[in-house]
Amino acid sequence: MTTVERNRLAIDGGAPVRDHPIVTTVPPTAADVAAAAAVLRSGRLGGPEHPETHRFEAELAAFGEVPHAVAVNSGTAAIHAILAGLGVGPGDEVIVPAHTFIASATPVLMVGAKPVVVDVDDSTYCIDPAAAAAEVTRRTKAIVAVHINGHPAPVDRLPSGIPVVSDACQAHGAALGGVPVAALGAAAAFSFWQDKLMTTGGEGGALLTADPAIAEAANLLRSHGLRQIPGSRDFHHPVLGYNYRLTGPQSAMGRSQLSRLPEMLAVRRRNARKLIEALDGIAGITPPVVRPGARHVFWKFVIAVDPEQFTVDVRGFMRALAAEGVPAAPRYPVALHKQPVLSSGRLAACPVAESLSSRLLTVALPATEQDDDVADVAEAVRKVATALRR
Ligand SMILES: *Cc1c(COP(=O)(O)O)cnc(C)c1O
């Protein structure tokens, strides 16, 4: 191939950089499936006191370095339970960042409180502490700190005296200054949805906390608000509850996945480091930035594409990359202050989140260790950036 042919983009009929898929999520292993199957065969499938769920909770608590873990059936349920456990309700305000998934904020509506949407930092894409401080009122009852993409939020710089909900749904194993995200703030929420850093078989979640009152409240809320009175077989329901229970087979798969999580994270982190290095110096492309002291786990590998430097917008860049065999997707193209469901909230000006919504691209991060995978992603980005430069 001549240089001209090699440089011709696949969208223009050239040969793609890569002709076989990149593995970005490790599918459940035989051990994961066997663990779930064993519980299915046992005949004891669910219920609030399932022994597999208790074991999973003990292992989660140890992993997060906190005394309490309550397994639930989604990350959204975990955030809802934390807010309820903190006593947040009607008339209260909760501060949330504008650049995140909708479920960081919808639980605020679920407890009847008002979401207050604030801007984020331009380099880590996490909540901007100054923007949060500017929106604190006497009604502020909590701040949701989202560890976006796996990068720990600046919980250490948030206004003091306000409980922090650590939204760790994208950040299993991340840490700030050596403190795991599970131990940052009043309590932390994790998601085990199919595409997150680990899964319980499609859906699942947990909240981790050092606060026994939050754990107790979550425990009640997850199972119909049912409290067993010692010596009585009657059902007592002192509070409004839900059914947020995780099942036995889900818990067993979660235990199996959790046991491999450190290894899976090590591969992601190594691949991310290599990819950051390989993308260094491509004009108009900003690889992920990691704050000193932060342990980033790279659930998503997000690059910023400077629209001024290319002949296409971020979607055009994405299509060219996909044609080269490297899947990509716009990262939160509609920020939270633009979401109709949150229009009853207080929506601060969010110029950074606004600008990110047309600049950020999630690029496939290989989840396995084959050196050419990372090299192919880097080469595809370089090829597209070079060909589409203004
Ligand atoms: C995935 C996610 C959630 C919700 O988790 P589910 O398990 O899908 O309910 C909440 N917040 C963030 C930041 C997420 O990425």
From TrEMBL:
Domain of life (superkingdom): Bacteria
Gene3D superfamilies reported in the protein's UniProt record = Aspartate Aminotransferase, domain 1, Type I PLP-dependent aspartate aminotransferase-like (Major domain)
Extract the Pfam families matched here.
DegT_DnrJ_EryC1
Could you list this entry's UniProt keywords, alphabetically sorted.
Aminotransferase, Pyridoxal phosphate, Transferase
Q: What molecular function does GO assign, one term? A: transaminase activity
- Which cofactors is this protein said to need? pyridoxal 5'-phosphate
Instruction: Read off the PANTHER family from this record.
Output: DTDP-4-AMINO-4,6-DIDEOXYGALACTOSE TRANSAMINASE, TRANSAMINASE
Into which family does the record put it?
A: Belongs to the DegT/DnrJ/EryC1 family.
Tell me what this protein is called.
N-methyl-L-glucosamine biosynthetic aminotransferase
